[in-house]
Structures are given as structure tokens and as C-alpha cells.
Amino acid sequence: MKKLFIKKMEALVDNISNNLRRRTNWYVITGGPSSGKTTTVNLLKERGYITTFEHARHYLDTQRLKGRTIEDVRKQQREFQLGVLNMQIEQEGQISPEVQVFLDRAIPDALAYYRFLNLVVDEKLTAALRTVSYKKVFILDRLPLVKDYARTEDEVAQKKIHTLLVEVYESLGFPIVRVPVLPPEERVDFILKNI
After folding, report:
1. Cα(128)–Cα(126) distance, rounded to whole angstroms?
2. What sign for the dihedral angle of Cα 136, 129, 7, 161?
3. Where are the beta strands (DSSP E) in the chain?
4. How many Cβ atoms sit within 10 Å of the Cβ of residue 175?
5. Could you give the CA distance from residue 98 to residue 125 in angstroms, rounded to a whole number?
6. What's the per-residue H, E or C state across 52-95?
7. What distance in Å separates the CA atoms of residue 105 and residue 109, rounded to the nearest whole number?
8. pTM here?
9. What are the boundaries of each domain within the chain?
10. For the chain, which terminus, N or C, has the lower number of CB atoms within 10 Å?
């Protein structure tokens, strides 16, 4: 029964109509762990573009300030994913559709992580996915994995998450541009030439 529910929810998400989506001037920078997203977004910001920050790391930092360990937060994956999703929904809800902005990940990334973690897709995520809209999605090719306090995935997980991100954004029908491995400034140039 649980598997049937998951399949129905995924089918619903995979068949979301573009007619429900408002048009935006938003560009998503995404990719698996350690693909250079934050570096790329920071360089875009240095060039004067409006950008957002990555919510998973921010959520972990807020939980650390409350006295929780990274390990404790990571053990509660549903709570962690919902916390990140709530932050992302709130942020995207506050951005005017006309503003050109580069997002360090976006709401659909949550679906890839739900799938990776075998979490049931809840109504909150499904409802959010019905209305999201992005002008273009830039998926950064993977770089060598570098672990830090917030990034705990191994190379197998990195590859799987990257693949799921591609599948999710393709299923939602957004224009996708694959960004090859290049020096950071050249990656930014590549993105700007393709907006």
C-alpha cells in the first residue's frame, strides 16, 4: 500500500501541468553534493547578480546554534528535509517573479532528496511542486567529493543524488543546461552565456 501511494504521488508530481505555474525570471543552480554550486552562486553575487543561499547548510547551522549535533539532525531525515523545504518555500514565496535571481538549489531538489532517502512525498512538497517555475535550470557536473561538517555523503551517494536531480528537473519540464567541469570563473561565464 505504501509503495502504491508513493507511485501515485510521484506520478502526480511527474505530470504537473505547466499551466499552473507562473512565469519567473529565476535561474536554478543545482547539482549533487560538492559540485561547486555555492562557489558558482557566490561568484555570480560578486558580479552583481541577485542570489540566494543554500538552505540545507543554513538549517544545519541553525540547529547547531540550538545545541544539536549534525549527527542528531541527520538521524531525523524527515524533520531535516521538511526544515529545509520550509525554508526554501518561504524564500521562493518572497521573491518577485520579475526579479532575475540565481537560486542555490530550489524546491524540486527536495523531491530528489526524498527519493534518495526513500521518504514518502508529502502534500506540502506536492503542493509546492505544482506551482514552482524557473526560467532555466543549470545542473553543474560533479567535481571530486570534498567532505565537510555539513556534507556527509560518499561518492556513491553523490552520483545517485546528482542523477536524481537530473531526473526530477527533466520530469518537471524545465529547460536544463548541463554545466561542464571548468574553472569556477569559466563556469560562471558559461552560465551567463546560456541564460
Report:
1. 5
2. positive
3. 26-30, 50-51, 101-104, 136-140, 176-179
4. 12
5. 24
6. CCCHHHHHHHHHHHCCCCHHHHHHCHHHHHHHHHHHHHHHHHHC
7. 6
8. 0.84
9. 2-193
10. N
Q: How many CB atoms lie within 10 A of CB 58?
A: 16
Q: Do 128 and 184 meet the contact criterion of CB atoms below 8 Å apart?
A: no
Tell me which residue of 96, 85, 112, 100 sits closest to 195, measured CA to CA: 100
Strand order in the sheet with 101-104: 50-51, 101-104, 26-30, 136-140, 176-179
- How far is 67 from 86, CA to CA, in rounded Å? 21
Give which of 99, 106, 126 is closest to 24, Cα–Cα: 99
3-state secondary structure of 77: helix
Overall size of the chain counted in residues: 195
Q: In the numeric block, which cell numbers belong to residue 63?
A: 540547529
Q: Phi and psi (nearest 5°) for 50?
A: -80, 135
Residue 189 backbone phi and psi in degrees, to 5: -60, -45
DSSP character at residue 147: -
Tell me the pLDDT of the chain (195 aa) as tens digits: 555 545 555 555 555 444 456 799 999 999 999 899 999 999 999 999 999 988 787 877 788 888 888 778 778 888 888 988 999 999 999 999 999 999 999 999 999 999 999 999 999 999 999 999 999 999 999 998 777 666 677 889 899 999 999 999 999 999 999 999 999 999 999 999 999
